[in-house]
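User: Here's a structure from my thesis project, written as C-alpha cells. My advisor, Dr. K., wants to see whether a designed sequence matches the one we expressed. Can you design one independently, without my sequence as a hint?
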C-alpha cells in the first residue's frame, strides 16, 4: 500500500470494506445514542478529502450521511470534528460539505492540523475546565504509524462513553520496527504503548503480525471492556492493517460485530483485496458449527439459563445472535445438550427456540 501524495486518490477494495463497516456501525450508533443523549461527538482524526477519485464517499461524508438519515437525532446536538494535517484535503472536504444540506443541530468543525496536537489540546482544555467529553465515537485512520500514540487512546478511553475505531497499520509497523532511525522505532513504541522488552518479544516471535495484533489487543483491553479487530489484506493476500474497535458498551460491541459479519459472512473478521467477488465460494462455512464447539467447551457439564448463554456469546465471542440460535439447535439435534421443556414462567417451550427462562443442561 503506497501513501498517495495527491489531494484525492483511487479507492481500494479494502477501503470500501472499511467504509462499509463504518457505515453500518454508525447507522446503529447514531440512533442508539440519539435516543437518550442530548449531545454526542463524532471525531474523524485523519479525515481525508471526503471523496475518492472515482467519486466514492470518504469517511467524513459517510458519517454525515448516516447521521442525516436518523430522525431521532433531531433532539440532540451532534458535533463533528474533522481533522487532517493537509490543507488541500480539508479544503476539498469543505467544498464537499457545502453541497450537503446540514441540519441546524449538527455542528461541523474542520481543522488543518495534526490529530495528536488537536486532540491533546481539546482534552487538556476540558480537563482544565473540569469538564468531560460528551459520548464520542473517534475514528482514527492514519496512513502509517505516526501521530496516534497509545497514551492518547488511553486518555480518550478514560471516558467510559467513548468508543474508538482505530486503524493499526501492522505491515508498516513490522517493516519499520527494526529501522535504523530511532525516531521511527520511537513512533512504533508510542503507537503500541509498549516497552522495549515487549517490542523485542514481538520482534523475536515466530509470527510478528500476530504478535503485534495480540500486543495491541491486550493494551486496549486494559481500558475497554470490549475489543474486536478486523483484518485487512492486500491484493497479494498480505495483512496490511487491523481495524480495532474498543468500547465499554455491550450494545456497541454487538452492533460492531454485526457490521463485521455483514462484510465477512464467512468468518466475521477479515477482508482481502485478492478475493474475487465473482468467484463462487466452494464451501460455505457455517459459523454456528464453530460456535457450537465453543459452547460445548465453555459450559461442559454445567446447567445454564438460556439468557446467560446468550450473554456469553454476545459479550465474550465474535459471534452474533443469528449464530447463537443455530448453534443451540445443532447441539440440541445432536443430543449434546438437553433442554427443560417447561420455562421458568411455567409455559411450554417450543422446539428450536431459546427464550429467556429456558434451562439448558450441557
Ligand atoms: C487513510 S487517509 C484517511 C482516509 C479517510 N479516513 C477515509 O476513510 O476516507 C489518512 C489521512 O490522514 C492525513 N494525515 C496524515 N497524517 C496526519 C496527522 N498526523 N494528523 C492528521 N491527519 C493526518 C492524510 O493527509 C490523509 O488525508
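Assistant: Designed independently from the structure alone:
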Amino acid at each position: 500500500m503506497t501513501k498517495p501524495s495527491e489531494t484525492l486518490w483511487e479507492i481500494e477494495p479494502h477501503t470500501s470494506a472499511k467504509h462499509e463497516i463504518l457505515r453500518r456501525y454508525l447507522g446503529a450508533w447514531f440512533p442508539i445514542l440519539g435516543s437518550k443523549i442530548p449531545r454526542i461527538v463524532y471525531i474523524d482524526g485523519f479525515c481525508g478529502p471526503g471523496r475518492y477519485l472515482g467519486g466514492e464517499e470518504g469517511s467524513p461524508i459517510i458519517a454525515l450521511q448516516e447521521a442525516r438519515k436518523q430522525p431521532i437525532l433531531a433532539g440532540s446536538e451532534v458535533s463533528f470534528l474533522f481533522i487532517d494535517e493537509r490543507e488541500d484535503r480539508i479544503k476539498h472536504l469543505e467544498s464537499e460539505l457545502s453541497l450537503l444540506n446540514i441540519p441546524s443541530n449538527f455542528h461541523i468543525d474542520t481543522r488543518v492540523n495534526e490529530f495528536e496536537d488537536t486532540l491533546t489540546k481539546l482534552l487538556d482544555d476540558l480537563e482544565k475546565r473540569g469538564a468531560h467529553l460528551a459520548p464520542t465515537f473517534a475514528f482514527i485512520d492514519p496512513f502509517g504509524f505516526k501521530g496516534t500514540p497509545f497514551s492518547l487512546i488511553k486518555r480518550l478511553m478514560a471516558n467510559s462513553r467513548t468508543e474508538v475505531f482505530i486503524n493499526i497499520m501492522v505491515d508498516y509497523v513490522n517493516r519499520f520496527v527494526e529501522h535504523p532511525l530511532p525516531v521511527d522505532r520511537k513512533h512504533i513504541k508510542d503507537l503500541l504503548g509498549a516497552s522495549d522488552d515487549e517490542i523485542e518479544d514481538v520482534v523475536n516471535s515466530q509470527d510478528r503480525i500476530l504478535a503485534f495484533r495480540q500486543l495491541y489487543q491486550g493494551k486496549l483491553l486494559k481500558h475497554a471492556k470490549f475489543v474486536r479487530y478486523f483484518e485487512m489484506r492486500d491484493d497479494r493476500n498480505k495483512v496490511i492493517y487491523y481495524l480495532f474497535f474498543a468500547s465499554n458498551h455491550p450494545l456497541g460491541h454487538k452492533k460492531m460485530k454485526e457490521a463485521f459479519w455483514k462484510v465477512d459472512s464467512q468468518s466475521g473478521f477479515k477482508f482481502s483485496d485478492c478475493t474475487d467477488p465473482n468467484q463462487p465460494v466452494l464451501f460455505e462455512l457455517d459459523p454456528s458449527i464453530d460456535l457450537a464447539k465453543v459452547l460445548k467447551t465453555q459450559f461442559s457439564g454445567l446447567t445454564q439459563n438460556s439468557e446467560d448463554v446468550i450473554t456469553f456469546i454476545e459479550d465474550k465471542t465474535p459471534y452474533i445472535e443469528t449464530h447463537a440460535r443455530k448453534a443451540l439447535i445443532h447441539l440440541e439435534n445432536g443430543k449434546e445438550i438437553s433442554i427443560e421443556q417447561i420455562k421458568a414462567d411455567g409455559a411450554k417451550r417450543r422446539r428450536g427456540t431459546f427464550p429467556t427462562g429456558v434451562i439448558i443442561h450441557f
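When you compare it with your expressed construct, this may help: Residues 287-361 form a domain with the Arc Repressor Mutant, subunit A fold (CATH 1.10.10).
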